[in-house]
Amino acid sequence: MTINGIKLTLPKMIIFDQGHTLHYESDWDSRRGDAALLPYAVKNPGDCTLDDIRRTSDFVYGTHIKKIRDLSYDVGGRVCNKVVYDYLGLEFSLTPLEMECVFWDAASPGTIMPDADKLIDFINAAGIRSAVISNLLFSGEALARRLGKILPRNKFEFIMTSSDYICRKPHTMMFEIAVRKSGLEPSQIWYCGDNPKADVEASSRAGMFPVWYDSSLPCHYRNGADERAPACPHIHVREHGELIDILERLIRNCE
Asked: What pLDDT does 1 receive?
């Protein structure tokens, strides 16, 4: 089947970005996250307040981590939190995973992108394998928990976050690791994401076929005015239903 001059074959796996592709966050408020976590502090020798935590976090994340991320690398959020909390002398009664989840659920509860559940149900029924690669300071464990809640019928074979893998999209290393995890050829995998550079062009460089999911929903952490259309062959969809339709047509062509 050919779409816009591009010859398509049915993928054996679709790997998804998470933020603004599967998972929707209408806003983000780190102070809400800190406020939810602080009651679990079992040691606070300096009587640290929310303002103290925010100032230290803004310094660690906003100054040092930003420099690393601008180079397409990442540092695990748990490591960053250890720096912040050890600096302030704070200790908590929760495990690192529990701390991530308490913070994230309060900072931005999140829900699914429109029809993401229908798309996941469709590819599951069609026998198309799936996985997730995300730029995220939270661990893959924390993301798996959240995706399990909002997309309980998912069959993701692996969930990779930059927090766990050092490299950050558009660095191609995470895509290349995913190919090895899948046991497939890169050309047998589609990658679906919302960012033209980090998702579409980067997955294309890794040999996957990219799907640009260009939703009209506002995204609080991206500046769409600074983005351009991807400079590589790709499918451009604005709704997950469009991708389902394309896959249905490919399946019919295979029968």
From this structure: 76
pLDDT tens-place string over residues 123-164 = 999 999 999 999 999 999 999 999 999 999 999 999 999 999
Label each residue of the chain as H, E or C: CEECCEECCCCCEEEECCECCCEECCCCCHHHHHHHHHHHEEECCCCCCHHHHHHHHHHHHHHHHHHHHCCCECCCHHHHHHHHHHHHCCEECCCHHHHHHHHHHHHCCCEECCCHHHHHHHHHHHCCEEEEEECCCCCHHHHHHHHHHHCCCCCEEEEEEHHHHCECCCCCHHHHHHHHHHCCCHHHEEEEECCHHHHHHHHHHCCCEEEEECCCCCCCCCCHHHCCCCCCCCEEECCHHHHHHHHHHHHHHHC
Task: Tell whether omega for the bond before 170 is within 30 degrees of 0, i.e. cis.
Answer: yes
User: In terms of C-beta density within 10 A (0-12 exposed, 13-18 middle, 19 or more buried), how is residue 146 classed?
Assistant: buried
4-43 pLDDT, tens digit per residue, is 778 899 999 999 999 999 999 988 999 999 999 999 999 9
Tens of pLDDT, residue by residue over 90-108, are 999 999 999 999 999 999 9
